[in-house]
Design brief:
Rna Polymerase Sigma Factor, Chain: A, Arc Repressor Mutant, subunit A, two-stranded antiparallel sheet, globular
C-alpha cells in the first residue's frame, strides 16, 4: 500500500511523550499496513481494502488533534478501522439484499503457501461469516481471527462484555452449522 493513493492533509502535530511529533503522514506510514490487515480479515474483501484504509486515515486526519496519548495511536487507529469495516459490512449486506453485490472469491485471501484444502476451508469460513449479522461477524472475527481478548472485543464492538460473548457464541454456532 503506497502513500500515493492517499493525499495526506496537513494536520496538527501531536506531541508524544518522547517529544516527537505525530502527523497524519507518520501515522499512515506506521499503521496503514496494520489497518489494511485488520480490515481485510474483517471484511474478507481485497478489492475494498485500499479505499477503506483511506477512509480510516481521513478520519485520523480529522481527529488527530483529539489524540491525547500518542503512544496509544495504534489502538486508536484500530477502533477507527473496525468502525470503517463495520460500515462496509453493513453496506455490503444491505446491497446484497437487493442483489447488487458480486460474490466474493474468498479463496484468494489465502497466501500462496497455503494448501488447496486450507484455501477451500478459508473460503467456506468467510462464506459462513457472510451469513452472520454484522455484529456477530465483527465479534467473532476480532476474537478468533485477530486473537483479541474478550474485553477488547467488547470495546471495539461498542458493547458490553456479556453481549460480546453472546455474539461470539452465536457466530461460533452458526459457523459450526455451515462449515461443520
Amino acid at each position: 500500500m503506497s502513500s500515493t493513493h492517499l493525499r495526506l492533509m496537513e494536520a496538527p502535530d501531536v506531541s508524544t511523550s518522547a517529544g516527537a511529533n505525530m502527523t497524519v503522514e507518520l501515522a499512515y506510514r506506521r499503521y496503514a499496513p496494520f489497518a489494511a490487515g485488520l480490515i481485510l480479515r474483517i471484511t474478507g474483501s481485497r478489492e475494498s481494502v485500499e479505499d477503506l484504509v483511506q477512509d480510516v486515515f481521513l478520519l485520523v486526519a480529522s481527529k488527530l488533534g483529539t489524540l491525547r496519548q500518542p503512544e496509544s495511536a495504534k489502538a486508536w487507529i484500530a477502533v477507527m478501522a473496525v468502525n470503517v469495516a463495520r460500515g462496509a459490512l453493513r453496506k455490503r449486506k444491505l446491497l446484497s439484499r437487493f442483489g447488487f453485490t458480486a460474490v466474493e472469491s474468498y479463496e484468494d485471501l489465502a497466501g500462496d503457501s497455503v494448501s488447496p484444502f486450507d484455501r477451500l476451508l478459508i473460503g467456506r469460513v468467510y462464506r459462513a461469516l457472510d451469513t452472520l449479522t454484522v455484529e456477530e461477524r465483527m465479534a467473532w472475527t476480532l476474537r478468533h481471527l485477530e486473537g483479541e481478548k474478550l474485553e477488547r472485543v467488547a470495546q471495539l464492538c461498542r458493547c458490553s462484555l456479556s453481549t460480546a460473548k453472546r455474539r461470539i457464541e452465536a457466530g461460533q454456532l452458526r459457523l459450526q452449522e455451515v462449515v461443520g
